[in-house]
TrEMBL record, chain A:
It comes from Tistlia consotensis USBA 355. GO terms for cellular component: plasma membrane. It comes from the Bacteria. SUPFAM superfamilies: P-loop containing nucleoside triphosphate hydrolases. This is Amino acid/amide ABC transporter ATP-binding protein 1, HAAT family. Keywords: ATP-binding, Nucleotide-binding, Transport. It holds the Pfam family ABC_tran. One of its GO terms (molecular function) is L-phenylalanine transmembrane transporter activity. InterPro entries: AAA+_ATPase, ABC_AA/LPS_Transport, ABC_transporter-like_ATP-bd, BCA_ABC_TP_C, P-loop_NTPase.
From TrEMBL, chain B:
The keyword Transcription does not apply. It comes from Tistlia consotensis USBA 355. It comes from the Bacteria. GO terms for cellular component: plasma membrane. GO terms for molecular function: branched-chain amino acid transmembrane transporter activity. PANTHER family: ABC TRANSPORTER ATP-BINDING PROTEIN, HIGH-AFFINITY BRANCHED-CHAIN AMINO ACID TRANSPORT SYSTEM PERMEASE. Keywords: Cell membrane, Membrane, Transmembrane, Transmembrane helix. This is Amino acid/amide ABC transporter membrane protein 2, HAAT family.
Amino acid sequence: MAERSSLSATGLSGARLSGAGVAHALRLEGVSRHFGALVALDAVDLEVTAGERRAVLGSNGAGKTTLFNAITGDFPPTAGRIQFFGEDVTSLPVHERIRRGLRRTYQHSLLFRGLSVLDNLYLAVRGVSRGRYSFRRPRRDDAALRSARELVHLVHLDHVAGTVVANLAYGQQRQLEIGMALAGAPRMVLFDEPAAGLSARERRELIEILRSLPRHIGYIIIEHDLDVALRVVDRVTMMHNGRIFKEGTPGEIENDPQVQQIYLGGGHG
Amino acid sequence: MASISDDRARAAAPGAAVERAPLRLPKGWAYLPLALVLLTFPLYANGFWIVQIGAYSMILGIIALSLMFLAGYGGMVSLAQMSVAGCAAYFFAILGHSSAEAISLGWSAWLTLPLSLLIATAFATMIGLLASRTAGIYTIMITLAIAVAFFYFTRQNYDLFNGFNGFAQVEPPHFFGLDWRQPLPFFYLTLVVSALCYAAVVYLRRSTFGLTVQALRDNQRRMRALGYHVTGHQVAAYAASGFMAALGGLLLVWLNTRISPGTIGVGPVIDILIIAVLGGLRHPIGPFVGALAFVLLDNFAIDLIDRERFNTVIGLCFLAVVLFSPDGLLGLWEEARAALTRERRPRD
Ligand SMILES: Nc1ncnc2c1ncn2[C@@H]1O[C@H](COP(=O)(O)OP(=O)(O)O)[C@@H](O)[C@H]1O
Ligand SMILES: [Mg+2]
């Protein structure tokens, strides 16, 4: 199948070094998404370099999740172009984008509730490798199964690896949600409010997980909690009413009066 | 590292926990008595019990098992499984021997057998392609529509399907020098195919393919976000379960020695759904339990009430099971066991 090449080197070669020597992992040009008359995303331009860690902040309904849905293809944009590592992926179906190294988590966990934690992560690894249609059971030393076990460990779920997801605590489901996005060889991960609803301790663990990610994995994180967001990113993008209105380093954003007014003053939650 | 506190364990999804926990049935040696009963059944039963009850139950069980695999694991309720079975039966008659000599090609069974399985599986694949565009109730609707269309097509097409009459004198091949129409060989043949199908489903559940099928049931959007071509996996599931239904269809035509539109009409199509739900969709033994109950009712309800009321009886049984045990007869078994365990350990 086609993913063999795509997982290795596609897009990482020439196209990656476009612009002024900057490697663009993701480039959005005039991306819009309409839901009927509602403009959830309004001509958004966005550039994220390879390995960059970015936060997207904005009040509820600002269009952050819609931005993710447009990037992954869950809800393809109604206008605009999306490039992923130099390749135009605007018209590709979701699974093709994923096979090119894009990953995401969902704001409201979408997990295989009837399967165990290990099965969930095994399927996550299998989804971006060969043998998806295999009628065989994975052998004990199967490479995908081994990576799945490593992921279980990475998201601190070893003690519940065999537990059916429906029986997991909320925080554990959120952690599994993150593990699902780290399977295979991600090049960029989109985290949609991973810390929402977590306890202080679970938040610390989340930060630990995010910081322990290999440096070449870039990510975009949507996070309401500035404490979490600003500690794990290089740059911040501010959204409001489907538009991007500010971009900067965490320090710049924290001290920006306009941001404080709209984001911190405006009700969110 | 013991990381996450369990304080919100139950808050996560109240009720959902019980919903899909795997059904716990006895393991390993506990099945020895059942295996012995099945293997020695022809020794103490007469021809009617061996074939009309025993073999027929297993055949319906195989076809219902193909539905259980699709619906129980994959969340795709297809009403066209009987049509796929019928398709295999029809093509075995069309390509091989039957009373309709003008149509039947008279090819060797070594050719007709794999070909009819292949054609039926292709039919199931096509059904999968159509049905994968739908979900839930619409899957039921479209597969029912296909089943009904196939029924009318076979009834009105005389060139290939011999219309209303269908095909008679369709006989199992005489391989290994045995007459497989005799009750004993046929019973064991059916038993072996049933056991193989059962074992296949048990094995497949933990295979990569089986896990993807269960993932289809749980969350297709997430599957896409993991890199899966969801339609591809749906169609594969229809094809695999169609192959199993086709096996059942061949056994069915050998048992009846005939195939006609009546075998694949709306009644039989719905019966398969009833059998699968009656037995329970969560474990591959369910369809066989359901089929046995169905066949017993079918044969002996007549002693209690008149023939015409059979549908009322099966309907009421169906209703009772669905109302009192969402997991079918298997669920009743589990509840009984749970009750017994509770009695033994009152302070649990
Ligand atoms: N699938 C959808 N159908 C209709 N409207 C939607 C859909 N998804 C999002 N919206 C609307 O788009 C706007 C942006 O939503 P969203 O991207 O979820 O915001 P955020 O994630 O920033 O809170 C909201 O007004 C929301 O109601
Ligand atoms: Mg959101």
